[in-house]
Amino acid sequence: MAKKGKFKPASHSQQQQQQRQSTEEKPATLKDLLRPEVLDKLKGAAQEMKDAEEKRKADIRKQEEEARAAEKKRQENDFEYLLNNSKMDWRNNKS
Fold first, then answer.
1. What pTM was computed for the model?
2. How far is it, in rounded angstroms, from Cα 32 to Cα 45?
3. Does position 12 have pLDDT exceeding 70, yes or no?
């Protein structure tokens, strides 16, 4: 006894018709509706915003590095800090 297939493959013409309908039914995007000049301005503004954000992050990173360097320099001049963080094994320094 042969099983009957529940799925019938669509014919080639039906597939083409479905593809045409799906492409025609797609709603228009904002990119399609805007003029190319406006679209170029928007892309330029987006790029400028990205560049400004990268510059701001770089400035913050530089300030943090400078603050760390200043703190390290201050700690190197602080005798109490050096005493508390030095190794107590003086045998390495013997002559």
1. 0.51
2. 19
3. no
DSSP reduced 3-state for 94: coil
Q: Delimit the domains of the chain by residue range.
A: 60-86
Token output for 61 = 């990173």
Residues 61, 53 contacting (CB under 8 angstroms): no
CB 75 within 8 A of CB 81: yes
Taking a C-beta distance cutoff of 8 angstroms, is the pair 31, 39 a contact? yes
The two structure tokens encoding residue 52: 């400004």
Write out the two tokens for 40. Answer: 């170029």
